[in-house]
Every structure is written in C-alpha cells, then in structure tokens.
Amino acid sequence: MSDNKVVLNYDGKSFEYPIIDSTIGDRGIDISKLRDQTGLITLDLGYKNTGATLSDITYLDGDNGELYYRGYPIEQIAEKSNFTEVMYLLLHGELPTSDQFQSFQKGINKYNFVADEMKKILDVFPRSAHPMGVLSSLTSALTAFNPRAVDVNSKEDLDHAAEMMIAKFSHLCAWTYRKKLGLPINHGDNSLNYVENFYKMCFRRPNEEFHLDPIVVGALDKLLILHADHEQNCSTSTVRMVGSAHTGLFASVSAGISALWGPLHGGANQAVIEMLELIEQDGGDVAKYVEKAKNKDDNFRLMGFGHRVYKNFDPRATIIKKAADDILNALGIEDKALDIAMQLERVALEDEYFVSRKLYPNVDFYSGIIYRALGIPTEMFTVMFALGRLPGWISQWKEMRLHNDPIGRPRQVYQGAQKRDYVDFSAR
Ligand code: ACO
C-alpha cells in the first residue's frame, strides 16, 4: 500500500485501487473497478466498512465522540443556535444571514397548513395504531396532494420542496399526537416560530387558554437540534436509497420513517422507557438486567446502550443528560425512571462486558426521560425523533440528487441451491 493507492494481489496478478481523500476522518478505497478487473465483490454485512457516498453535510468521529453539522461542533450549535437555523444550515451549507433566515421562515409559513382532506385519512386509523405507522402513511399520502415532482435542476424548486416538507411534516407529527389522545386537530399559527408552532399544534387544549411554556419549548428545540442529522445512519441511508431511484421527496421520507421506527434505531427511545418501567415494576434490580444483557442465551439488550459508530461516548447523550436534569428540576418532576437510568448507567459503565465492547449510553437513553417529563406518550417518542431528523433526511436526499448518485443496487454472494431442473408436482 502507498499513500494514495491500495494494491491487491490476487490470482497471480496485481491490481491498484486509488484512495479517495476526506477533509477529516475515514479515507476510502475506490473499488468501483474491482469486479470488472478481478471478478470479486466485497462483502460487508451491515456496511460496517463501506462508504456509500461522498458527503459534506455531517461529520462524526466515533472514536473521540465528536459530531459536527457543516463543520460546526454540536456543543456550540446546541447552546447557541435554534432548530430553524439548524435546518437552514443543514440544507444550505452555511449559517443564514438575518435576511436569509427571515426568507426561510417565510417560505415555511407559506405552507403552514395541510389539505383538509388529509384529516379524513387520519380519521380512519384506529386510536390504537402506532403513531409511526400513521406518520409514515400520512407522509406518503402527502404525495397525492402535492403531485408535481421536484425539479432538482432548479434551486428555487428544491428550496420550495424542502420548505413545504418541513412545514407540513410538523402538522403530521402533531396530528398523530392529537389522534392518539383523541383531541381535535389544529393547523399552524404563523405568528410563532417553528418549534412554538409545533408545540401549540400538539398541546393546545380545546377547553383552556393556551400558554407557551418557554422551558418546554427550549427543551424541545434542543432535542430537535440534537437529532437533526447523523450522516449515513439506517433511516438516512434508506431515504437516499429510495431517492436514488428518483422517487419523490415525500415517498423517500416516508420510507425513512419506517426505518427509523425499528427498536435498534430511533425506536430505541420508546424501548428505553419500556425497559426502565419493566425494571422498576420488577423491583428495581438493575444488576439483574445488566446480567441478562450480558447473557448470550438471552435476547435482552440494554436499550439505549451501544452505537455503530460511537465507541467512546455519544456527544449528544452528554448534552441531553444535562438537559434532562435541568428540565426535571425546572418542572419539579421526580422520575423513578431517571433514578433507574442513573443506576443502570453506573453499573454498566463499570462492567467489563460493556467497557471492553465500548458500549456507552446513546442519545436515546436520555431523550425519552425528557419526553416523558413533557407529558408526551411513550409511543410518540420516535415521532419526535422523526421531526428532528427531517432536515437531515431532506438535506441528504437533496445532496444525493444534486451529486447525481447512481441508483443504489448492492450485489450479493449467492449461497443458495445450484442450478437444477423443475420437478413436477406428482414427482415430488
Ligand atoms: N446490550 C448488550 N450487549 C450489546 C448491546 C446492548 N445494548 N449493544 C451491543 N452489544 C454487544 C453485542 O452483543 C456484541 O457482543 P459480542 O461481540 O460478544 O457478540 C457487541 O456488543 C457488538 O454489538 P453489535 O450488535 O455487533 O454492534 P452494532 O454496531 O452492530 O450495533 C446497535 C449497534 C444496534 C446500536 C447495538 O449496540 C444495539 O442494539 N443497541 C441497543 C439499541 C439502541 O440503543 N439503539 C439506538 C442506537 S442510536 C440511534 O439509532 C439513534
């Protein structure tokens, strides 16, 4: 191997593959000619070593626990920015000037309603339906009300599509919440900012005057910022993969919502609270559940622990843990689940099994505690994650289309039956 290429010796021949440079972090071996030259393909289950794209949106350093949006460290963004600004930054690559910010907000406000017929679709879901299933279906249904395909060669069209998606998606998230609770649904209020507007659409009671609680709005804003993008994770890769077939934005995002729903991905925030409740109901014996998680004959895993990329700590978890403490204090809430979470964290972080495998609490370990303190039903937690992740999905979809990435189509190493002749039914 030299600095800028890798040499592969195979079948008595030598092949060279160039190394693609990065600004920071992993460099990649360009193996696009590998199969043509050698007849071999690579096999990398779960894509643990495979770069699927070139990207300039988000960078994370899993060994050192660092996360950057467009080069800005997440700690600075979480402290100083707000979710609307972060959406702009992810979508456009730079922090907005005051004029750009106003115009972005105006663009979102233009679409701050959802066609009334969509309510009929919402109505037919039973209240018992999981909000993520409802959200994914409603997002897909938006296509029917906005049938025109985005012209990716027009910056104006791309901007409008992003602003429309951002505006309407907050309604769909709020509507799934209202549906779950059996409350009448609302449209947006353009006098409020994005997070306030979402908060009002969710929490306004039909029989009371509405007040914005700045503590809750601030907490929501921070949570949404922390979830806004995370490079090529499962749901984002899904959005890019579906979009690579030139499928529209709404349908691609709808697929991303389904991917996010899984308990190994965004669904972990719901699973964490369910696990903490289970431990509490079972007498609060934290050590017993740590042992279960270590037992290879037991399917139980400590939800909210471990991450494919972070092998040190999840920087978002550090910020959220502090936010959870602040919010519970500010709202005067004592939560037994938080006590159990703290014990679990202590025991696991000292245990050889977790230490040697570099398993640390991830973002979902604490986010559920905040959502619970805000009175959000457990099944809604992953919807909150989806609202946060939306700007990441749109930015990555847009990048994929602007780079003109080819359709995603992995290969396989086939290990099934050899070629054989069909056997008639009577002869089987
Ligand atoms: N509890 C117990 N053991 C675990 C856990 C866990 N939460 N996570 C990983 N391990 C163990 C595995 O059993 C494996 O052990 P082994 O080497 O003895 O076989 C080793 O740690 C490596 O685990 P993998 O599953 O190979 O790691 P991978 O990178 O594929 O998975 C994942 C990462 C899916 C996040 C995993 O850690 C997990 O299931 N965590 C719980 C679910 C969760 O919190 N998901 C949220 C992720 S963050 C997000 O999506 C926002």
UniProtKB/TrEMBL annotation:
Record field: catalytic activity: oxaloacetate + acetyl-CoA + H2O = citrate + CoA + H(+)
> What pathway is it annotated to?
Carbohydrate metabolism; tricarboxylic acid cycle; isocitrate from oxaloacetate: step 1/2
Keywords linked to the UniProt accession: Acyltransferase, Transferase, Tricarboxylic acid cycle
CDD domains linked: EcCS_like
SUPFAM superfamilies according to UniProt: Citrate synthase
Q: Where are the transmembrane segments?
A: none
Q: What are this entry's molecular-function GO terms?
A: citrate synthase activity
Q: Per its UniProt record, what PROSITE patterns does this chain match?
A: CITRATE_SYNTHASE
Pfam annotation, one family: Citrate_synt
Family note:
Belongs to the citrate synthase family.
* Entries under NCBIfam families matching the protein: cit_synth_I, PRK05614.1
Question: By what name is this protein known?
Answer: Citrate synthase
Q: What is the lineage of its organism?
A: Bacteria, Pseudomonadati, Bacteroidota, Flavobacteriia, Flavobacteriales
